[in-house]
Each structure stands twice: as C-alpha cells, then as structure tokens.
Design brief:
This protein has no helices and 11 strands. By secondary structure, it is an all-beta fold. β9 and β10 form a beta hairpin.
C-alpha cells in the first residue's frame, strides 16, 4: 500500500509562485508514472502535469510554461512548481502514482487546497 501526502498548498495572490510537494511512503522508482491533478467543485479531476519513471514530463496545455514537475528519487518526492498563478488555478490538487503490481494500480493522495486570489 502506497501512502501519498501532499503539502505546500494555501492562499496566494495572482502572479505568485507556489510549489506543491508529494511525499511517498514507498520508493518512487517503483512507480511507472507520477502526476499532479486538480479538481474544482462540480468538475472532473484533470491532469495538470505528469512525469514518468524515466523523468519525461507532460503538461496540460493551460499550464505549459508556468509549471514544472520534478521528482527526487532520494527523497521520494514529486514536486509541482507553479509560477504566475491565476485565479483559475484555484482547485484541490491531488498527487497520483501508478504502480505495476498484480495489475496496474493507482494511488491517490488526500488532496490539498490551492486558492489564488485576484
């Protein structure tokens, strides 16, 4: 069982930067894919950014150029740096990892609130 704990959220102003961190209870080299997702009330959870075990990132179009996802295999963390935050970035942010077990299994963190004021 993998436990993921997000940190770094909070209330910021438009234009500010914020770094979210996801700490894993398991060595992250065992994960095929790691991602940050976000969800607003009444909407589906959507991908913000992801990174493969080999370090290849991918980003949602609306955050490209403003976000950077990274991982630290030694610390077992997955970080999401967000710059030039906008009010529309306000959401609950979730960390998710995929791990090949008997079958491919997803694990989610509990989520963390990010609020961007205008």
């Amino acid at each position: 069982q993998v436990q993921l704990v997000e940190s770094g959220g909070g209330l910021v102003q438009a234009g500010d930067s914020l770094t979210l961190s996801c700490a894993s209870s398991m060595n992250i080299i065992s994960f095929n894919y790691m991602g940050w997702y976000r969800q607003t009330p009444g909407e589906q959870r959507v991908l913000v950014a992801g990174i493969t075990r080999y370090g290849t990132p991918n980003y949602a179009d609306n955050v490209k150029g403003r976000c950077t996802i990274s991982k630290d295999n030694a610390k077992n963390t997955i970080d999401l740096q967000m710059n030039n935050l906008k009010p529309e970035d306000t959401a609950i942010y979730y960390c998710k990892v995929n791990r090949q077990e008997v079958q491919l299994t997803e694990y989610w963190g509990q989520g963390i609130q990010v609020t961007v004021s205008s």
